[in-house]
Prior knowledge:
Elements: H1 10-15, H2 17-37, E1 45-46, E2 59-63, H3 68-85, E3 91-93, E4 100-105, E5 114-121, E6 124-135, H4 136-139, H5 144-159, E7 161-162, H6 193-202
Parallel strand pairs: 2-3, 2-4, 4-6
Antiparallel strand pairs: 1-7, 5-6
Helix pairs in contact: 3-5
Amino acid sequence: xxxxxxxxxxxxxxxxxxTAVDRLLVVLLGLAAIFAIAPAASGYVLQGCKFAxxxxxxxxxxxxxxxxxxxSAVSAAQGQWDVHTGSTTYFVAGSGDANxxxxxxxxxxxxxxxxxxxxxxGGYYTSxxxxxxxxxxxxxxxxxxxxxxxxxxxxxxxxGLGHNSDGCGSWWxxxxxxxxxxxxxxxxxxxxxxDVNGWDYLY
Length: 203
Ligand SMILES: [Zn+2]
């Protein structure tokens, strides 16, 4: 195998110690400026559990008699994740012993609109399944885009991303923020840059 990586000769660094020090100073000043401007910025949060690499990149999800609205949202959400992570096969619709079982129903006035539940051992999901549930009691009044955003958020959990409190407006804009504020973020349909950064870290 040939690897076309371009290495800078080590002697270059030894011959120019001042350059290296200057570069370090610039980096430190740059970081200081970033923190001064946006002290509250954080970014994606890891959930602490994810699919094993033997499962990805073909995580199978099964839709169990979903209503049309939820089914459309799920399809759109998995499509957006695939687009932004550079594949068309990370989430694949299937049946039987699927990795993700998706259900919807009127579960009443719960504190959650949708949820992802799973078993975890050693940082990886146990058995083959996680469960993604949508509560129609809450989602019936959502428009199609809002429901898609919710589904994108749930797939983010399925990948292994946890909640954060990052709002709209910059690189830390994140579909994994809890609550409805994410519906009004600009930048097109999620996932957004920082969500994909989280995915890149996980897989
Ligand atoms: Zn959530």
